[in-house]
Amino acid sequence: MRVLVTGGNGFVGRYLCLELRSRGIEVVSAGQTIHGGEIDVAFDLADNASVAAALERIRPTVIFHLAAQAFVPQATSDPLGTYEINVMGTARLIESVRAVPVSNRPRFVFVSSGEVYGSQAVANLPLRESMPTAPATPYAASKVAGEAIVLASARTYGFEAIVTRAFNHIGPGQSDRFVVASFAKRLAEIAAGDNALFPVGNLTPSRDFLDVRDVVRAYADLATAGTSGEIYNVCSGVPTKIQDVLRHLVMAARVGVEIREDPALVRAVDVPLIYGDNSKLRAATGWEPKITLPASLRDVYAAARQTLTSA
Fold first, then answer.
1. For residues 100 and 106, what is the distance between their CA atoms, to the nearest angstrom?
2. Percent of all residues in the chain with a pLDDT value above 90, rounded to a whole number
């Protein structure tokens, strides 16, 4: 089996490549070098020829499509750029798959997001794959569109495709643009002697956090055990308030902090409660989370300290 991972030099992509290689699978990582990390093939989702050439060269049996603009605030400030990458980039990749002879077309795993459910009534929780989508941000809208393109194209052009809806994933090495990593970085700075001031946004929302290493195990399992045409939540199934995440990180850091709300850090749209139902994933693959949230957060903080001391 030869696997292509788009966005293979991103946070999740790097972990997915490691997981697949640990299973003895041949992996080709594709992405843009400007985002850092090691890649095997450079390609640009905005360039039809670049995407087609990469696919022709690699000839994978499975494609994991992770490459995307995934930072919600940036997507909100630049919706057209986000749609260009997340929607049209996916369409270009699918068009290259369509050019492959039917007998050789790869299985396609599209990485979407739990954000597509939007804000739901408490009675609708936990979120199940059968629920209608209600995107509340340009990022979520781009993922809904990507899902539709992939599933409709698979039916029309004759290849296997599944969609994963990952909820909030965390882990060592995540960009500090994301809330958990930013918390860990600030705590590492305080532990290193900086002042105790800790600016925060809204700490009341609850999210479904899952360690990235458990996330990529689910992706790898679904590539072989998932049913074509189906959508699978990848989540812990447990909601945790962001303020509790911060509490765990402070306990890991063992430092005193002065928490102060900063209006600049408050999102214009912030869904109060999101958590999913992972029973469909479990039934299909036997997957279950292995890394607890406190253990994951300890690892995130340790990585932040290591990054700070080695800078």
1. 9
2. 77
pLDDT at 34: 47
CB-based contact 89:45 (threshold 8 Å): yes
60/100 Cα distance (integer angstroms): 10
Give the pLDDT confidence of 203-240 residue by residue, as tens digits: 999 999 999 999 999 999 999 999 999 999 999 999 99
Q: How far apart are CA 29 and CA 280, in angstroms?
A: 28
pLDDT tens, position by position, 267-293 = 766 778 889 999 999 999 999 999 999
Distances 230 to 98, 133, 222, 275 between C-alpha atoms, Å: 20, 15, 10, 19
Integer angstrom CA distances of residue 73 from 38, 268, 270? 26, 9, 11
pLDDT at 106 > cutoff 90: yes
Would strands 258-261 and 197-200 be described as parallel, antiparallel, or unpaired? parallel
User: Is the torsion defined by CA of 86, 89, 93, 95 positive or negative?
Assistant: positive
Rounded distance between C-alpha atoms, residue 299 and residue 305, angstroms: 10
Instruction: State the number of CA atoms in the 13 A half-sphere of 187 facing the CB.
Output: 27
Two structure tokens written together for 55: 């696919």
Query: What pLDDT is stored for residue 271 in this prediction?
Result: 73
Q: Give the tokens for residue 178.
A: 């994301």
Could you give the CA distance from residue 18 to residue 216 in angstroms, rounded to a whole number? Answer: 9
Strands (E), 11-114: 26-31, 41-42, 62-65, 107-113
3-state SS class at 29: strand
Three-class DSSP category at 164: strand
d(CA 247, CA 200): 13
